[in-house]
Amino acid sequence: MAINPHITARRRRNVILYLISIAVLSVWAFPVIWAIVVSLKSETEVLAYPPNLFFRPTLDNYSDALFGSFSIVQSFITSFVISALTTVLTIIFAVPAAYAFARLKLRGKKVIGFYTLVTQMIPPVGLVIPYFLILNRIGWLDTYQGMVTVFLTFSLPFAIWLLVSYMEDIPQEMEEAAYLDKASRFQTLWHIILPQVRGGIAVTVIFVFLNAWNEFLFAVQLGGNTVRPVTVAMYNFVSVEQTLWAKLSAAALIAMLPMIIIGIVAQKQIVKGLTVGAVKGGGRR
Amino acid sequence: MPAVTKRLFDKEQNFAMLLVAPAVVILLATTTLPLAFLIWNSFHSINLAMPFMNGFIGFENYRTMLHDGEFWHSLGLTAIYTASTVIMQLVIGLGLALLVMQIPAGQWLFRIVAILPIVLAPVVVGLFWRTLMLAPNFGIVDFMTRALGFDAVNWLGSTTPALVSVILIHTWQWTPFAFLVLLASLASLPPDVYEAARIDRASAWRRFIHITLPLLRPAIVIVVIMRSMIALSAFAAIFAATGGGPGTATEILNLYAYRTSFVKLDFGYGSALAVALLLITLVVSSVLFVIRTARTR
Question: Between B30, B133, B296, which is nearest A152 by CB?
Answer without folding.
Answer: B30
